[in-house]
Amino acid sequence: MNTTQRTALVTGASAGIGAAFARHLASEGYALLLVARRIDRLKELADALTAQYGVRCDVFAADLNDPAAPAEIMAFAQKQGIAIDVLVNNAGLSGKTAFADTPWPKLAAEIQLMVTALTELCHRVLPGMQERGWGRIVNLSSLAAFSPPGASLLYTGIKSYVLGMSQSLDMELKPQGIHVTALCPGFTRSEFHDTMGTRDSADKLPDMLWQEADDVVREGWKAVMKGKPVCVPGTVNKILAGSMRPLPVGLQYHLGNRLNPFKEG
């Protein structure tokens, strides 16, 4: 099928990995629905991608901390006649203060953004994908999902949820032509550390631990197209992930799929 007939929804598309996904998908001929809070950044990116690749780029300003946002995004897509064939759940953040010292609304917003909204968007795009018999979903997890929990942070637990949830969805949906991949990058050069106020600490890390956003995206997209449920981009990250888990992730996936109580046979 001609990819110009397919559209990708990318959240957190105004910078970093989200913007890199937008560029990569546009280069492959996908139309785009770009979502983030900063509408000016979205419009600038959309105009550039349309000019360079000739693809349709719609933009929608939404704060996924708001529980109403996923429904509003899908209502906008329906109104514009956009069918979502690819979903990239990229929007995310990390808390900067101890759990006990953080006001509950901030913790709730973190969970809403990276757990509830991510899961709801998956659920909302699936009927159309199932009807068409084709779909691709990339959920941004993290190398942190393989590591021991970090003191005071929800981030490790949230990214572990995204990793496990994505694999479970892939098991269910792959027979229907829908691939789901948990993309688990390590340290990636982007605005994330500036936003979180951790730039000074991040800059002290060795260069070998860092990847460029475009490299992360290329590996992640290749993985989801090949039907790989987990992608840890970069050789160093693969070694780190393998050293932190008692069983290889591929074996965990195989065992989970075989032991699935809902699987026929």
Throw out a few tags for this protein:
alpha/beta; 7-stranded parallel β-sheet; Rossmann fold; 265 residues; two-stranded parallel ribbon
List the helices and strands and how they pair.
Layout: E1 7-11, H1 16-27, E2 31-36, H2 39-53, E3 57-61, H3 69-79, E4 84-89, H4 104-132, E5 135-140, H5 155-173, E6 178-183, E7 187-189, H6 192-196, H7 199-203, E8 210-212, H8 213-226, E9 230-231, H9 235-244, H10 249-258
Parallel strand pairs: 1-2, 1-4, 2-3, 4-5, 5-6, 6-9, 7-8
Helix pairs in contact: 1-2, 1-8, 3-4, 4-5
Domain Ketoreductase: 6-165
Family: Belongs to the short-chain dehydrogenases/reductases (SDR) family.
InterPro entries: KR_dom, NAD(P)-bd_dom_sf, SDR_fam
Q: In brief, what are we looking at here?
A:
Pfam families: adh_short. The protein has 265 residues and is an alpha/beta fold.
Number of domains: 1
Strand order of the largest sheet: 3-2-1-4-5-6-9
Distance between the termini: 33 Å
Task: Summarize the biggest pleated sheet.
Answer: 7 strands, parallel
- Supply the CATH class: Alpha Beta
Instruction: State the CATH topology.
Output: Rossmann fold
* Helix/sheet category: alpha/beta
- Helix and strand string, N-terminal first? EHEHEHEHEHEEHHEHEHH
Average the pLDDT over all residues and give the rounded result.
88
Q: Could you say what the CATH architecture is?
A: 3-Layer(aba) Sandwich
- Beta-strand content estimate: 15-25%
The total count of strands amounts to 9
Helix % is 40-55%
- Globally, the shape reads globular
How many separate helices? Answer: 10
Rg over CA atoms, rounded to whole Å, is 18 Å
The parts where pLDDT drops under 50 for at least 5 residues are: none
CATH superfamily: NAD(P)-binding Rossmann-like Domain
